[in-house]
Design a protein that fits this description.
With 167 residues, the protein is mainly α. The protein has one domain. Helix content is 53%, strand content 5%. It contains seven helices and two strands, in the order αααααααββ. It has a two-stranded antiparallel sheet with strand order 1-2. α1 packs antiparallel against α2 and α6 crosses α7. The longest helix is centred in the C-terminal third of the chain and has 23 residues. The radius of gyration is 18 Å and the shape is globular.
Length: 167
């Protein structure tokens, strides 16, 4: 089973491994999610089968690979969309998901929509990550560095090209 973990099997494998207390498989599935959740799984319909606590644990992991915090937000909104729209058989493009949230007239923002569905913790995760990255960026901009690429703790890439310390 460890060799067969992919985007269509990871949710079912994790659920079965948890049910039968197979810690090695649970850890393998969680590691796969840390590396592939943002990149692959959010485009699969099986993403709806991912339990909220597993999603939350994965998003809080310091080993989560992501391109940016915006991709984390897209993933959270996609998961919420799939939880609400159970009749959907294919994951729609992200623009359709955003249009869905915009057309809801009662709450006025994506955050309000997500909060009303009991998903406040997922949105708080996104807020914590954003604030942490903003703090990291402001701290790193004060120090002088040479040209190069820096990888943050979330796996995102940023270019730093300053030649003298900012006063």
């Amino acid at each position: 089973m460890l060799d067969n973990i992919n985007s269509s099997t990871v949710c079912h494998f994790h659920e079965a491994a948890s049910k039968y207390n197979q810690q090695k498989l649970v850890l393998a599935c969680e590691r796969w999610l840390e590396l592939n959740l943002i990149v692959h799984l959010r485009y699969e319909i099986t993403f709806r089968n991912l339990h909220k606590d597993v999603l939350q644990k994965t998003l809080l992991s310091p080993r989560l690979f992501t391109f940016s915090e915006y991709h984390v937000l897209q993933t959270i909104l996609c998961w919420i969309f799939l939880q609400v729209n159970t009749e959907i058989r294919l994951v729609p493009p992200y623009s359709a998901i955003i249009t869905y949230f915009i057309r809801l007239s009662v709450p006025t923002s994506h955050m309000d929509i997500a909060m009303t569905g009991g998903n406040a913790t997922l949105i708080q995760i996104q807020k914590i990550e954003y604030e942490g990255t903003a703090t990291e960026l402001s701290t790193s901009s004060r120090a002088a560095t040479t040209s190069g690429s820096c990888i943050s703790s979330r796996g995102t890439h940023s270019s730093q090209t300053s030649t003298k310390e900012i006063q």
